[in-house]
Amino acid sequence: MKQSGIFRTPKIPDEALQRLKERSAAIHEQWEEMMRIDHAILRKIQFIEDSKDEIDYEGFRIVEYPERKYISIGTETEIYAGESFYFYPTLVFYEGTKKEFGALLTDEIQKKM
């Protein structure tokens, strides 16, 4: 029986095993990131479900808040590509037909700046 050249030296199986371990670790990191995003989305869903009975869909109201800091996270087509939309309270700024999104910085993040 002819032996494949890939297993001829003892180093090759070890390298293949190391690559598999590295790939497994990378997949696990990606899974953890997806789970963090999923938890953030589930919190947003719960907030909306808890709040929807209080929403006046026909009218609007003006609510004034103290000055707060935010970072720009882009346009509507850009925001879903990054994680800022999922992890921070999102603000929408309308200027004419232009719509920009910002992520509200929490007190903890503002203290670090």
Question: How would you summarize the topology of this molecule?
Answer:
Layout: H1 11-51, E1 70-75, H2 76-79, H3 84-87, E2 90-95, E3 98-104, H4 107-112
Antiparallel strand pairs: 1-3, 2-3
Q: Overall 3D geometry? A: elongated
Q: What's the mean pLDDT score?
A: 79
Oligomer: single chain
Q: Count every beta strand, where a strand is a DSSP E run of 2 or more residues.
A: 3
- What distance separates the N and C termini? 67 Å
| Helix-strand sequence | HEHHEEH
How much of the polypeptide forms β-strand, as a percent range?
15-25%
Record the strand order, biggest sheet. Answer: 1-3-2
Biggest sheet overview: 3 strands, antiparallel
What's the total helix number? 4
Radius of gyration based on Cα positions: 24 Å
Helix content: 40-55%
Structural class assignment:
alpha+beta
Low-confidence stretches: none
Give an overview in words.
The protein is an alpha+beta fold and 113 residues long. The protein is built from 4 helices and 3 strands, in the order αβααββα. A 3-stranded antiparallel sheet has the order 1-3-2.
Task: Please give a quick description of this structure.
The chain is an alpha+beta fold and 113 residues long.
